Amino acid sequence: MKSKTVKRRASDSHRRPAKLWQLRLYVTDSTPRSLTAFANLKKFCESHLKGRYRITVIDLVKQPRLAKGDQILAVPTVVRKLPKPVRIILGNLSDTDHLLVGLDLRPAD
Amino acid sequence: MKKTILKKTIPKSTSPATQLPRCPTGIQGLDEITGGGLPRGRPTLVCGGAGCGKTLLAAEFLVRGAVQFGEPGVLMAFEETEAELKANVASLGFDLGGLVRRKKIVLDYVHIERSEVQESGEYDLEGLFVRLNHAIDSIGAKRVVLDSLEALFASLPNEAILRAELRRLFRWLKDKGVTAVITAERGREQLTRHGLEEYVSDCVILLDHRVNDQIATRHLRVVKYRGALHGTNEFPFLIGEEGISVLPITSLALNHKISSERIATGIARLDAMLGGRGFFRGSSILLTGTPGTGKTIVAANFAQAAARRGERVLFFSFEESPNQIIRNMHSIGLRLEPLVQRGLLRFHAARPSLYGLEMHLATMFKEIAAFQPHVVIVDPITSLMDAGTESETKGMVTRLIDYLKAGQVTSLFTSLTQGGHVLQQSEATISSLMDAWLLLQDFEGNGERNRVLYVLKARGMAHSNQVREFLISNRGIDLVDAYIGPSGVLTGSARAAQTAREKAEELISQQEAARRKRELERKRTALERQISGLRSEHEASAEELRRIDEQVGTQTRLLTTERTELGRLRQADVSVAASVRGNSKPKNKR
What we know:
The complex is a heterodimer. By secondary structure, chain A is of the alpha+beta class. In chain A, about 35% of the residues lie in helices and about 20% in strands. Chain A starts with a helix and ends in a 7-residue tail after the last helix. Chain B is built from 19 helices and 25 strands. In chain B, helix 13 (about 355-370) runs parallel beside helix 15 (about 390-405). Classes of the chains: A alpha+beta, B alpha/beta. The interface between A and B is medium-sized, with 35 and 25 residues. Strand 4 (about 85-90) of chain A pairs parallel with strand 6 (about 115-120) of chain B, so a sheet runs across the interface.
């Protein structure tokens, strides 16, 4: 267990994540902001995590119960479920630099 | 005042249709101050510093709504987890867990770890809205609590977005038609740290926790209540075992029911001093005295007398433990223990400094409500005075007396005076609230201290103006007439000495009279003897006299006879003459 964690951390810092990325995108309805967020996330993942990611879109209007699990307040919100630790990014993801920092793909300056 | 003026000028404007509908909180006293509760269907801001009871007030609003008014509620907590909240309000006797299970209340703990959060582009708080909406709809909630907004500000990085969204949230809550309570920390210059009072404009309640003279008291003030008359004063409130109670002083009016029934004091002579029949039922009695004058004893006597009549007596002791009182009273022949066992007498002992005045008052109210006594004794009320300022104490005693009078409970307050002879000012202030005032005092002199009792006032009854000496022996209390003579009031051994002296004097005078009586008797007997002697002497002389008379008669007769004989013998011519004078005529004829 311990060695695995160390290994993952090492790979994280080298921007070579070995495992599949699980991302959840929480939105409410198909508002323009939600659509923008999804488009931005998709574009980002294609360029940084090609072939190693999975995005689940959760519409809170349809499934309000799910808001509690990931402590969602703001929308849109992206939750990185895997790899651990959990990361949360708020917004329509228009700021790629912040997104990189948020997803731990680049250390904060 | 304002209310009545309004009513007079615009008679029909205060009808329920034009008044904001109220949402009763069920919190003791708060509904009185706000004229029925919080504005229904609108958000209310409750602000205050740390530890002043915001969360509890909000939680009680929800719980009472769910339990008493059939209005389910949602508690969205940003600070405390569900488990913490349940534990916290359990201390007030609220079963939050049970209410959650019965779907009367929904708890939602909202928490974001700021270190995990990164912003990227625009967002809003629609997620919060969705959660809240879901919670409200799931149980048909009528009440919502958001506690506290500071935690929300702490968890989200962008304050501008938060402000805009909060404004939208309050609007949304209004549209949703729920009565909301939002708590917020108090700011330095504003009511809230983030100036939220701008958004919530319908009702703002400010809580405050101040320490005065080492004793902390909580205060509540309705800063703003749009479209309604409300008490703007600061009201003390407290968090007791059964929730929050605000104690409005201003709401009390003088309209108690009055009883003309009289109840005995347990001391027959004292009853006699009070027009012969004791105190009025439901009256308030003040018993003042210097240390060691027997205040507790009089109080215990009163308690025993009441309990023996089968009445329930609640004895608040602020100086002695119940067992100590029972033991001490036993030494003067008062047996309180059986009465305690029979459930007629209950003691409640607490140190005055244990908590603030308001808390004492609330505890007393609770005890009184639970025990439903006929007689309440507070021994001594002066101990409580140290727990607050003079005006606070007076306010408290007023409320206590009013509360007791409303229930026709007779109350006896003992009060300790420090000075020897001058009545304390503080007593003068509370004495005006009392219907009867007994004074116990020490008289020092002749190398001893003696107790005296007098009735300073007793409203509505003829009462004795006399000073009575107050004796405590192992058989109980006795009141004795104090000796009032030329040298003033005499008590104790001086009174006894005076009585003895009087007794001796009386004895002497009695003996003197008896002696004189005997002497006179003797004199009279002597005189009588003299009289009888004289009388026999008198009789003897009368006899003598008679005898002399007789002798004289005989002698004369003999003489005459002799003379006649002689004459006859001498044949004297005088015989004729002599026979005419004497009885010898027939003899002469013969």
